Amino acid sequence: TFQIVHGEIDCQGHARITTLKNCFLNSGIEAPSLPQEGSDAAGGGGGNFMDTILMRSPEEFCQKKVQFKSAFECAMTSSIQCFPQELSGYIAQPEMMRLFLDQLCENVTYKDGECVQSKHKGLHQCLENKKSNYLQGLLKRSKSQDRTLKDITEYICKYFVFYMMCLKTEASSCGCNVTSLYQRLLGDILYPPACPRSLVTSEYSCKAAVIRWS
Fold first, then answer.
1. Which domain holds residue 162?
2. Which of helix, strand or coil describes residue 10?
3. CB neighbours of 174 closer than 8 A, spacing ≥ 6?
4. Does residue 129 sit within a domain?
5. Cα dihedral sign for 185, 190, 193, 195?
6. Is residue 207 part of a domain?
7. pTM reported for the whole predicted model
8. What's the CA gap between 138 and 114, in Å, rounded?
9. How many structural domains are present in the chain?
C-alpha cells in the first residue's frame, strides 16, 4: 500500500477513500464500492473502476455519461496523484476513462451490457481467485513479505490479464462477440501504457470483434 500526501490530496487510507467517493457524490452520482484501506495497488490502476462499470447497466452510464465522465476523471486524477512517480505508467489516464465511456455507449447495446452486468458476481469471484493464487505463488517464489518494484508492476499488468481471462470464462454465455468487445474496451483503452501489449492481445475471445471508434 502506498500512503503519501501529494499537494492538496491526502493519500492516507480512509482520507483517500473519502476523496474518491466525493468525486462521485459531487457529480451527482451514488458513490460505488471502493477498495478499502490497505488494498493492493493493482486496483488503483483501473481494475476497481472496471468493477464499478460492471456493477451498473450501460443504460445508466449512457444516460448520465457527462456526470460519470466528471466523476471518473476526478477519481482517476486523485489516484494518479497518490501513486509513486515510478508507477505513473501503470495506471489508466483520466482521458482514457472518458474514451472508455464514449466507446461503451457507442458499441454495447443495453441488452448485451445487462447480460455482462448479470455476471458480475462470478467475474468478481474469478478475479479474486486468480489474484489470490498469483500472490501466493509470488510469496513462495520471493520468500519475503516485501514486494519489489518489479513485483508490483508485474502484478498490476497481470491484474488486467486476469480480468480479461475472467470475462472470457464467466461472461461467455453473453456471446463471444459481446465478451470480446468488453475485453477490447479494457485491453485497448484502460490497459496501462507501461504494461506489455502481448499479455492482453492473446486473451481476446473473438478475433472478428471490432470496435467502432467514434
1. 5-201
2. strand
3. 112, 115, 116, 119
4. yes
5. negative
6. no
7. 0.77
8. 36
9. 1
